Amino acid sequence: MAYSYNVDTRITTGIILDSDEAEMIAIKDNILNHKASAGHELLLRTVITEISLKASGEGLLEVKQDVMDIEHSTGQHTWYNYDARDEKPKADVELSRAAHGLRIQIATVHRKIEVVLIWIELLQESLTKDGENSSDRESMLEWIQNINTQAKMAKLDAEWVAKRAENQVGAIYSLFAQRDNITAQKISEATNRDSSAMKSLAVLSAVFFPGTFIATLFSLDSLKEQPFWMYWVITAPLTFIVLGAWVSWTNWRMESVRRQELRLDRKGIA
């Protein structure tokens, strides 16, 4: 926006770029609502400031609704009467993207409100430098103070929404972590089942391997004449020896792992 003010005629001439028809109608209606301040140097600037604050407020309402939708999807809220725009909860990827997008939206709205507060400060400084004591000046001062109050309330509201959004981002990460833990637990249980199955196969192999090996030896031509009881005399002790060796080795390995874990724990504590 660019404008000039003629002190003699009390006429403001301005150019407003990138404004649609609705915004121009809003500016016109706002000026008509403040006819008492017509001809004042700060009228147009104050009108633009108020309209900018209103636009920021509308953007903040949209962000609030987005936050409530995310709260609905995560379930991390205390709302009892809330009608979500989308009854179907968002998927994980969509939920994460929406939550991070909220940070950008809130930062944008917060920046716009900060700009409005700077404009209000400049308006107040210009009005203070005027030094004229008149009803027109008092009316403008009251108007600007009212806008200033609304802007401060909007800023507090934006900060509150930002905190809610940050809480939801933390809640989303927590939900993802819980799901990852559940998945890891299921994988661990499946691994334990596979390990038990492999252990069972190892035990069966240890039981039948000696007997199979001795039977293969007894099938040789030089040993075919041996009595059948000789097979059991050799197979039974050999089976117990193999099983005993396997059990001893397994226990030794588990004990070695336990001692290594204890050493690591002591180093960590130290």
Commentary on this structure:
The two termini are 67 Å apart. The chain has helices at 21-33, 43-74, 92-130, 135-218, 228-269, and strands spanning 2-6, 11-15. The mean pLDDT is 78. It is mainly alpha-helical. It is rod-shaped, with a radius of gyration of 41 Å.
Record field, number of beta strands: 2
What structural category characterises the helix and strand content? mainly alpha
How many H/I helical runs?
5
Any idea what the radius of gyration is?
41 Å
Shape: rod-shaped
Give the strand line-up of the largest sheet. Answer: 1-2
Distance between the termini: 67 Å
Low-pLDDT segments, ≥5 res: none
Quote the average pLDDT: 78
Taken in chain order, the helices and strands follow as EEHHHHH
The largest β sheet comes out as: 2 strands, antiparallel
The share of residues in helices is over 70%
| Content of β-strand | under 5%
